[in-house]
Amino acid sequence: MHRLNFVTRLTAIFTALAFTISQLGPPPARAAGKIQIMAATTDLASLAQEVGGDKINVESIARGYQDPHFVDAKPSFLLKLKHADLLIVVGLELEIGWLPPLINQSTNPKIQVGAPDTWTLRALPEF
Amino acid sequence: MKVGKMRADFGKVNTIHNHALPWIDRPLATNNLVGGEDGIDDAGISLSHFIAAPKGWFMEGTAQVYRGDSDDLFSAYRRQDLGVVGHLRAYRDLSESTNLDLGASYARGNSAGLATAVSPSAFFTNLYGADATLRWKPLRRAVYKNFLLRTELFWSARDQLSPLNIFQTQHAFGMYTSAEYRVNRRWTVGGRFDRSGHATAATLTDTGFSGILTYWPSEFSQIRGQYRFGHLAVANPGDFSNANEFLFQFLFVMGAHGAHPF
Predict the structure, then answer these.
(1) What is the DSSP string of B9-28?
(2) Nearest C-alpha of chain A: how many angstroms from B158?
């Protein structure tokens, strides 16, 4: 009984602490009304910017001068993916070494594998 | 949320699988204080939550509840003898190439190895941990040059019976500091300093250091050698044994392997 009380207390403390801290920080930066798009590479981001114009905010994960096979799945990308409305990837397993854990940990249902808001270029042959 | 058998989110090295370690062995502090070779590895449930933080910091809190059996660290003598782990992580990109990763951890469970005690469920082990990692990896040359500096500190408070069968709490401290530098695409050099008391006898302190050389013939294999010196405490305080060891490791990959978390 003593042990169950301890676990319950600890869980309650963690939950309360996490909730309290989550309310202290500023809300994520997000331009009003604009669609937030994340792209795996800069060329995809550029294409999206041309199509979306001023209706979107787009950012790429890999830089143009970086080998897209060897990108680090840095936690700073998680916050961006968490608030993305759309994720555009090259596919054909180019991002297999780093993108799956980022998608999983982002807990964003819009960009999970198979979700309608994830675009893979190989699935769009007419693109 | 994760459910199942997993490595607990306690510090850094406890979460890393053996084949992904930057050394062949695990630090002395892991062996002495954090569950031996396997670490805190148990069946349970894990809940993580992003915590909003200012000025570009990424923060994440994790709470885990386990069955309570973890090698020679925790034992569940009754079904309600659970183990709990909490972890708070703070991460920030200092520049495009450099980042800083900080963490604080806590774990609690019933002390292992007390099955013959009268009331083993009244004996607890509390573990506290702090970790810091500095990474430098220039994006343009990431596969050729990078550097990682990491340190972890552990404090253990273990309830147990003394040789005279008296209840006692042993307070032990352990730490390691490790650095690795990728010289070019194929070669990495590294070193590690270890110091740790024993969880069951805090006055016995082991010290050691290692030098590590790693060669990658390709992305699918790895050859590693490690020289390890240990100044290891034996039965009585003040008695030590020196150990000079060479370790060798060959790893190869067959088929696809999922990406490791950062």
Answers:
(1) -STTGGGS-GGG-SSSS--H
(2) 17
The DSSP letter of residue A54 is: G
The answer to whether the complex's ipTM is over 0.85 is no
The verdict on residue A49 lying in a domain is: yes
Check A78 against B58: CB less than 8 A apart.
yes
Average pLDDT over residues B164-182: 94
A18 located within any domain: no
DSSP A33-87: TPEEEEESSHHHHHHHHHHHGGGEEEEESS-TTS-TTS----HHHHHHHHT-SEE
pLDDT digits (tens, 9 = 90+) for B38-95: 889 899 999 998 888 888 899 999 999 999 888 888 988 988 889 999 999 999 999 9
Cβ under 8 Å to B: A residues 6-65: 6-7, 10-11, 14-15, 17-18, 21-28, 63, 65
Q: How far is A7 from chain B (nearest CA, A)?
A: 7
Residue A55 lies in a domain: yes
> Is A109 within the bounds of a domain?
yes
Overall number of domains in chain A: 1
Contact state of A82 with B54 under an 8 Å Cβ cutoff: no
Q: Inform me whether the C-beta atom of residue A74 falls under 8 Å from chain B C-beta atoms.
A: yes
Sketch out chain B's domains with CATH numbers: 2-252 (2.40.160.10)
Nearest to B259 among A18, A65, A73 (CB): A73
Domain extent at residue A58: 35-123
CATH number for A68? 3.40.50.1980
- With 0.80 as the threshold, say if the pTM is over it: yes
